[in-house]
Amino acid sequence: MSVWQDIADSIGAATGRDFRAQPPRGLGGGCVNSAFELSDGDQRWFVKTNRADLLAMFEAEAEGLGALAASTTLRAPQALCTGRSADTAFIVMEHLQLGHGSDMAWREAGRQLAALHRCGHAAFGWHRANTIGATPQHNDWRDDWTGFWHEQRLGFQLELAARNGYRGRLQTLGEDLLGRFAVLIDHDPQPSLLHGDLWSGNLGFTRSAQPVIYDPATYYGDREAELAMTELFGGFSPDFYAAYREAWPIDPGYRVRKTLYNLYHVLNHLNLFGGGYAAQAEHMMQSLLTEC
Question: Whose CA is closest to 188, among 124, 134, 125, 242?
Answer without folding.
Answer: 124
